[in-house]
Design goal:
Blueprint lengths: L7 H17 L2 H10 L6 H7 L18 H14 L4 H19 L2 H12 L4 E4 L16 E5 L2 E12 L1 H7 L1 E8 L12 E7 L5 E7 L9 E12 L3 E2 L6 H36 L1 E2 L2 E2 L4 H34 L4 H30 L10 H13 L5 H13 L8
Parallel strand pairs: 1-4
Antiparallel strand pairs: 2-3, 3-7, 4-5, 5-8, 6-7, 9-10
């Protein structure tokens, strides 16, 4: 069923992104960003001028109408060059969640946040995780009650990317709240999606987390106390917000896979350069089979991961363009992308660091930035790894084998 291919136009696009990254994101800039905790001045506008911000939005809404193979190419190149993963996070959050917000939004919301974000003048992200957990979306406690033509929202969101950037740039988040009691046996029902402007009265950014990696983009939390938003800020149908929320997670997981493919490629190249030059016992350490075999295994697995990634991106494009696959057919492959690629990329970084010995454990070596950044995708960004296993097993065995029912 492998029918996908990279077009000549996409190859030229990859070349253009590669050259842009070489100019704007050399390793010394990445290291400086990691040390200061800030993205380079003007980089967001540069990305906007290149058409990278919410590039998946249709042209009539201000985007480039890029398909998901093209979005993965961009994510892979950003992951290759900016191995700390901060700018890739900024890119993928907006490309996936910006797309879903745009897909379900009114024209009022598009004008308020999507079009400005595409131009680099706002940030649009995802805020579902709460203090009690993140993977069990149906159990979230934030509520929204309709009063007239407005919704009154109360709750708290935690471990949210971009909380400082959104305060500086403007914009807001996709949030999911409970708007009606869940029917027995169907906890996912009664959830509704909303666009929440960060500057809405009653929204307060309450916490900043000092993450281990991807230092150039902030992580924080915010509370919502009697926040009023108009019904026009509702995203999708009332009580059906669980499904578009899952759609956003799936698209973000796809782009996470692409970022990690790019980062894995880069760390292996850095490692290969080192083992060809570093000598021990009178010969380059790349001659020793203990290192050669690990490198060979990593290269083979990287090629398999890249094929899985782009095959899945092709399936997503076929779904959106031709309604060829069902969402459940696609989600199995997207979960495989999220399950397999980030841990592989993290282990590839570990292998290269071990080849380098003491140098690999120092900040003279850039690979430790990749290890720290990729770790966030393994821990739970856009869904924990065991959740992906549950999803895959559900599609293989049937819903009657879901462990929590």
């Amino acid at each position: 069923m492998v029918e996908f291919s990279i077009t000549e136009e996409q190859q030229l696009f990859r070349k253009a992104i590669h050259e842009w990254c070489q100019k704007h994101l050399p390793m010394e800039v990445v290291r400086q960003m990691d040390k200061t905790g800030r993205m380079p001045e003007g980089i967001v506008k540069e990305m906007a001028d290149l058409g990278l911000l919410i590039m998946t939005a249709p042209e009539e809404h201000g985007g480039t109408g890029a398909d998901w193979i093209t979005a993965c190419i961009a994510a892979e190149e950003l992951g290759y060059h900016e191995i700390s993963c901060a700018i890739p996070v900024f890119f993928l959050v907006q490309s996936s969640w910006g797309y879903v917000v745009d897909r379900y939004a009114t024209e009022e919301v598009r004008n308020a946040v999507i079009r400005p974000a595409i131009k680099g003048n706002a940030f649009i992200g995802i805020a579902t995780t709460e203090s009690g957990g993140g993977s069990d979306v149906a159990a979230f406690k934030s509520t929204a009650k309709k009063v007239g033509n407005e919704w009154v929202i109360n709750g708290e969101k935690m471990y949210i990317s971009g909380t400082e950037e959104v305060q500086k740039m403007g914009g807001g988040y996709w949030i999911t709240c409970r708007t009606s009691p869940a029917p027995e046996g169907a906890p996912h029902k009664g959830m509704t999606g909303f666009y929440l402007p960060i500057n809405a009265p009653g929204v307060e950014v309450t916490k900043r987390f000092d993450d281990v990696g991807r230092m150039g983009i902030s992580t924080g939390g915010f509370s919502m106390k009697n926040v009023k938003v108009p019904d026009s800020y509702r995203l999708g149908n009332e009580g059906e917000g669980f499904y578009p929320t899952m759609e956003g997670f799936d698209l973000a997981r796809l782009l996470i896979g692409a970022v990690c493919v790019g980062a894995a490629q880069r760390v292996l190249e850095i490692g290969m350069d080192y083992i060809k030059q570093r000598k021990a016992f009178g010969r380059p350490i790349g001659k020793f089979e203990g290192i050669q075999f690990e490198l060979a295994d990593d290269w083979a697995e990287l090629e398999a991961m890249r094929s899985l990634l782009y095959r899945t991106a092709w399936m997503v494009d076929e779904r959106y363009k031709h309604n060829r696959f069902t969402p459940l057919e696609i989600v199995k492959y997207i979960s495989a992308v999220k399950l397999k690629i980030p841990p592989f990329a993290m282990h590839a970084a570990e292998h290269a660091m071990l080849w380098m010995g003491a140098y690999g454990y120092s900040q003279e070596c850039p690979i430790e930035m990749a290890w720290r950044g990729i770790m966030s995708y393994c821990i739970g960004a856009e869904g924990a790894l065991n959740i992906q296993r549950i999803v895959i097993a559900r599609e293989l065995l049937g819903k009657e084998f879901i462990p929590y029912k």
